[in-house]
Amino acid sequence: MSKTLVIGSTGQIGLQLMPLLQQAGLNVVALTRNPGKLAGIDGLEIIEGDLESDFEQAFVGCERVIFTAGSGASTGADKTLLVDLWAARKAVDYALKHHLKHFVMVSSRGADNPDRGNSPIKPYLVAKCFADEYLQRSGVPYTILRPGRLTDAAATGCITTRRPEEAERQHITRADTARIIAHVVKTGQSRNTIYELYQGDTPFTDLIA
């Protein structure tokens, strides 16, 4: 039976995402350094692993992978390099080796051009840019999602995929982002596509194939 691997399972998006995947009838594999953080979610296959080491074993038997891991805002450029770039690159290599059918990469607004503007998170955007490009060139079927600034507000179900001109409107909730990821995985139709994601007025099911 096919499985869906979630990398970044204990992150703020990952924890909201996995129950949605289960509700869609998918068998979920969660890769984590801290299995105890997943104690409240039943029915998961949990694999303990570290993104800074070899985590290939998590890909065995999987058909899809979602990479929603991140080094976190409190870490330095070293962790950004090791997690957001190098671990993502390794995940792409493992996906290719194990013939996965779909790789969903959660990237970021601005990863298309880290030189645009004067972003304080430019090292992170550079890492995401190169990780995205590596995935695109790998031959693994992909969907790249580039959400705007993430908020903890309640889901609205409505988005736009066009970047608003005003920077203060370039945001989206983590809850909506999790729902969009689940939709992409469940439908399996948005292959080799990149979407930017922002709060908007259109149901995401009308914009995301």
UniProtKB/TrEMBL annotation:
InterPro entries on file: NAD(P)-bd_dom (IPR016040), NAD(P)-bd_dom_sf (IPR036291)
Short name of any one Pfam family annotated for the protein: NAD_binding_10
Domain NAD(P)-binding: 8-186
Domain of life, per lineage: Bacteria
PANTHER family: FLAVIN REDUCTASE-RELATED (PTHR15020), UPF0659 PROTEIN YMR090W (PTHR15020:SF50)
Protein name: Oxidoreductase
